[in-house]
Amino acid sequence: MEKAQARYKRAFDKRVQARREAPRVGDWVFEKSHENQGVRLVFEKLGPYQILKTEGRRLTIESDDGIRTINGNHATRTPDQPKGDPARARALAAWQVPSLPSSASKPIEAVFDHFVGQGYDEHERLMLKVRWFRYGPREDSWHYVEDLPAENVRKNCMQHRLTVRRRASNN
């Protein structure tokens, strides 16, 4: 009986210990989600998303909807992937954003937050002014839509009724 109790205790402690480790900035997590489909409740994991900021059990992540805060109870850590994993490489490439220029020798790494303006260049190509996460209006920068996250550009263009293609000339 003591052997069985000791085995159950070890298994329980493993589960509890894994749960107690708080996620840190830079860790990758899946977001637990659920959806009603008729009479069934369907569970799924969204992500992986990288943690940008933590405040206790609240996690700030960048998802397809932009930067948002979720409850840490709705997130699970991603298993450690080997360095050469193509799925992880695709996820990292999807979140890449341009670097901001800085006065220092190396550029500032920035994460997309939201759009604050739109306009066209001299060749009538659509450009959007980007506000970067944790940066103020002084660091806002103009970028062509091709260089920005596609889903965010699509939503912004639909909201402001913008066309990505060149505008017709008035001549």
Q: What does it look like?
A:
This protein is α+β, with helices and mostly antiparallel strands and 171 residues long. 23% of the residues lie in helices and 36% in strands. It has three helices and eight strands. The chain has a five-stranded antiparallel beta sheet with strand order 4-3-2-1-5, with no helix packed on it. A three-stranded antiparallel beta sheet has the order 6-7-8, with no helix packed on it. The longest helix is centred in the N-terminal third of the chain and has 19 residues, at 2-20. The N and C termini lie far apart (91 Å). Mean pLDDT is 76; it is low at 167-171.
Topology:
Blueprint: H1 2-20, E1 28-37, E2 40-55, E3 58-63, E4 66-71, E5 75-77, H2 86-94, E6 112-120, E7 126-132, E8 141-144, H3 150-160
Rg for CA atoms: 22 Å
CATH architecture classification name of the largest domain: Roll
SS summary, helix count: 3
Largest sheet entry: 5 strands, antiparallel
Please outline what is shown here:
By secondary structure, the chain is an alpha+beta fold.
Question: Which properties best describe this structure?
Answer:
171 residues; SH3 type barrels; OB fold (Dihydrolipoamide Acetyltransferase, E2P); 2 domains; five-stranded antiparallel sheet; three-stranded antiparallel sheet; 3 helices
